[in-house]
Design a protein that fits this description.
This protein is α/β, with parallel strands linked by helices. The chain has 15 helices and 15 strands. Residues 28, 208, 233 line the site of zinc ion (ZN).
């Protein structure tokens, strides 16, 4: 039985969906005004692993991730780049999809966009207004937090605490500093939609309430996101959805710990970030996923090259076995079939994952498995083909399909070898430069360029990018 920590009840709870075996899972996605960073990728990948594990356990999961495609930051970017907001969001939605594929994150079943749900959003705001939970001030509509008694139940704070400690934006039109915008009046030159309150656009929080309700109904199973969203975003979603529908909103709230840099949250606004695509130039998706899987999903994790390199080294051990299995299966042989209790590893893997998604323990089980299989291979000269099929099936179901840390696809393996070869050539070029052999260093750079591999030198070293 899977147990998962629920931020709402602050307990690990047995996971029982509302309508088994169906599971509806909603994850807050990106605001599409830039490339996403590797901190965002941590949340996206851990949600992906949870989703994949639910599928492994036989649940039928419908996964939705929203795309926030209208917002102040998008408008700012459209002014900076002198293009309209749709061109901005289209560019970054495309980039988002490319990065998601590269990170081996399963495509969501639904990617609802805010701009395609304006009518649903307006209807929900109208309901809130009719119930006395929202008020209109000169074309701006706010949620009246003091009218919703349970406000603070997710973040575990009461209204007084929240007010004194809040970093809430000040706005003279609000009756209470914690009130938040449901509908924002359009300023001169901003994109707008017509509404009962005049020309404007939706606030961020109402999007998720309206879109999850539209696709999943008033109550659904899992709502996920990074820790930074607990307050105010998710607290506000609960106030809106439960306020409008008078029904429990979500059964399990799942939150992911921050990826930090020097113990500080990686974020766009602090500027201390690496985009996922930058990191993908240096490490494969499998290495990045391994790095995340080796940490507890709720705790903080520091981004570090040392940890990524050690994840890479660990994966090499697993990949050597994958390589061996692939080779054996190309030339099937008959031989001994050793006594090997695969069920023990399967149960250990499931026990780890069932215990609040203990992925680091699950990875440890995979390492034990690889070590024990290697011992058997060393001890038995001629092993039967069925043995290799047997161990491949286990690694595919667990490490490949749940954790996404390896691939039996032979193309993938050649691409990791390709990366190692390019890294080797880069090291040779660095040596050439140290020996002041600049003509060789330039020749290496130019020859790689003709192969579509561009080297980029920076004070932190040389990285490469492939152009096709
Ligand atoms: P944003 O585009 O900032 O709204 O973030 C998209 C998703 O990434 C949300 O679920 C955030 O909670 C999550 N997120 C943002 N920064 C981090 C971080 N440093 N570590 C982990 N998750 C993050
Ligand atoms: Zn959201």
């Amino acid at each position: 039985m899977l147990h998962i920590y629920n931020t709402l009840t602050k307990k690990k709870e047995e996971f029982i969906p509302l309508d088994p075996p169906n599971v509806k899972m909603y994850m807050c996605g990106p605001t599409v005004y830039d490339y996403f960073h590797i901190g965002n990728a941590r949340s996206f990948i851990m949600a992906d692993i949870l989703r994949r594990y639910l599928i492994y356990k036989g649940f039928k999961v419908t996964f939705a991730m929203n795309l926030t495609d209208i917002d102040d930051k998008i408008i700012k970017k459209s002014i900076e780049e002198k293009i309209d907001t749709i061109a901005v969001t289209q560019k970054y939605i495309n980039a988002f999809m490319e990065d998601v594929i590269k990170l081996k994150i399963k495509r969501a079943d639904i990617y609802p966009k805010a701009t395609e749900h304006i009518e649903d959003i307006i209807n929900m705001i109208r309901t809130l207004q009719n119930k006395g939970l929202a008020y209109n001030k000169n074309g701006n509509v706010f949620y009246n937090v003091s009218k919703y008694e349970q406000y603070g139940k997710l973040s575990g704070k009461n209204l007084d605490e929240l007010e004194s400690g809040s970093r809430i934006e000040v706005n003279e039109e609000k009756e209470n500093p914690l009130d938040f915008a449901l509908w924002k009046k359009a300023k001169e030159g901003e994109p707008f939609w017509e509404s009962p309150w005049g020309k404007g656009r939706p606030g961020w929080h109402i999007e998720c309430s309206a879109m999850s309700c539209k696709h999943f109904g008033e109550t659904f199973d899992i709502h996920a996101g990074g820790n930074d969203l607990i307050f105010p975003h998710h607290e506000n979603e609960i106030a809106q959805s439960e306020g409008a529908n008078s029904k429990p909103f979500v059964k399990y709230w799942v939150h992911f710990g921050f990826l930090n840099i020097n113990d500080e949250k990686m974020s766009k606004s602090l500027g201390n970030f690496f985009t996922a695509r930058e990191v993908l130039n240096r490490y494969s998706a499998e290495v990045i996923r391994m790095f995340f899987a080796q940490a507890y999903y709720r705790g903080p994790l520091n981004f570090s090259d040392d940890l990524l390199s050690s994840a890479e080294k660990g994966l090499e051990k697993i990949n050597n076995l994958v390589f061996r299995i692939n080779n054996e299966l190309v030339n099937p042989k008959q031989g001994t079939n050793p006594d090997f209790n695969i069920e023990y590893y399967r149960q250990s893997f499931e026990k780890a994952m069932d215990e609040d998604l203990n992925t680091s323990q699950a990875v440890a089980v995979i390492f034990d498995f690889v070590r024990d299989v290697n011992r058997i291979i060393a001890e038995n000269k001629a092993l039967d083909n069925s043995f290799f099929l047997f161990i491949k099936e286990f690694l595919t179901a667990t490490a490949e399909e749940v954790l996404g840390i390896l691939s039996f696809d032979t193309d993938q393996i050649s691409s990791s070898i390709e990366k190692e070869l390019i890294d080797l050539i880069i090291t040779i070029r660095i040596d050439a430069k140290k020996q002041k052999n600049f003509s060789l260093a330039d020749k290496i750079r130019d020859d790689l360029k003709t192969l579509g591999i561009i080297l980029e030198d920076s004070p932190n070293g040389t990285t490469f990018k492939k152009v096709t």
